[in-house]
Amino acid sequence: MKSAIALSLAALTLVTACDDSDDEGAEASAAFEEAYAQLELGKADTGGCSGVVVPDSSGFAKRLALTFDDGPNAATTPKVLDVLAQHGIKATFFINGSRVKGENERAILRRIVAEGHILANHSQSHLNLKNVTAAKLATEVMGTDAILRTAGVTPRYFRFPFGSASCSGMDYVKTKGYVATGWHIDSADWCYAASSGYCAPATFQYVPTGFRRDMLGYVMSQVKAKNGGIILFHDIHANTANKLDEILSELENAGFTFVRVDDVTTFPKLNGAAPAPQKWVGSGCAKDSECNFASGAASATCHRFTPTGGSAELGFCTVACEGFCPDRAGASPTFCTSLDGGLTGRCVAKSHTTNQSCAAIAGTEAKLASRFIGTSSAPVASATVCLPK
């Protein structure tokens, strides 16, 4: 981990504040590594003051919000917009006001808004705002605020450069009506851009060796690990613009869908709404999106069925399994069995007092079922579980 001194130096010499170079420099690397440590290693500052930690941490159900920082760039941002249009995806663009130098950039802002994307504030000069005076912070925030308003929007979302914020800085942006917006997944595109597609360990130590020349592989590994969330890209990098179509196609093929950061279903806490009730194995449902949980990389789905003698279709939440299923405190215990004649395994609720011996799971009754073992080392077993009547 880089030292706090190295992190503070980021405010002095960030390349993104002054040109369109692909290499943001060693100081920026230190700041991004600090952000990674807050997200992945739990080393966030005092609760509520981190500019990178998002209050919604799970329940994404393979939904992703694409965000792009540091633009606009007259050469690369239009390419990014073209790719997004081809895929029918809406994103969020956190701009630096200092990059809006003339009519070309203002036209890009208008295009972003016209095509249904969110235009958001990423400060004026991309300084490390954790280390500036209160007066400088106000200039950095409100200078870009004015530019956004001339583009016809009332800005709502603010992202601290590198996710680096102080408690006083966080308080300030909130008083200006902003929602501080971090990310769940750093694509590390800034690192891959620094050396023409190679992410060097000295630039970003947290990329595994096998992904050093494989930005697509790294992005997919991170997205699958989180099962969705907010992902950070930068539209100023040619490497990102050139790789984006391939990345989006791979994500789509893997079953991920796309939302904006203002999607209350996916990010309720970020947007000031009460989170949706957390479903679990055996919870009633009518569609897959209502089963807002996962087991490892497997997203929950809704098993729909029509009970014997019934006319209405019912459903309960389940998730793929081999041998074993996870349990959750306060919920019915679970068991791995098959719902398709032995082809695949699915977690179901055991008959238990918490579900009134299956009476609380509409359309089911207690039945003896065999364990689905699959490729696991689980022993042969059976249990009384809640299955469709």
What features would you highlight for this structure?
single chain; about 400 residues; alpha/beta; TIM Barrel; six-stranded parallel β-sheet; two-stranded parallel sheet; 16 strands; elongated
Q: Can you describe this structure?
A:
It is a single chain. The chain has 9 helices and 16 strands. It has 389 residues and is α/β, with parallel strands linked by helices. It has 2 domains: 4-259, Glycoside hydrolase/deacetylase (TIM Barrel, Alpha-Beta Barrel), CATH 3.20.20.370; 288-388, no CATH class. Strands 1, 2, 3, 6, 7 and 8 form a 6-stranded parallel sheet that branches. Strand 11 (301-305) and strand 12 form a beta hairpin. Helix 8 packs across helix 9 (238-253). The longest helix is centred in the middle third of the chain and has 17 residues, at 134-150. The model is unreliable at 1-24 (pLDDT under 50).
Question: What would you call the structural class?
Answer: alpha/beta
Secondary-structure element series = HHEHEHEHEHEEHHEHEEEEEEEEE
Helix percent reads 25-40%
- The coarse overall form would be elongated
Please give the domain count. Answer: 2
And the CATH topology of the largest domain?
TIM Barrel
CA-to-CA gap between the ends?
57 Å
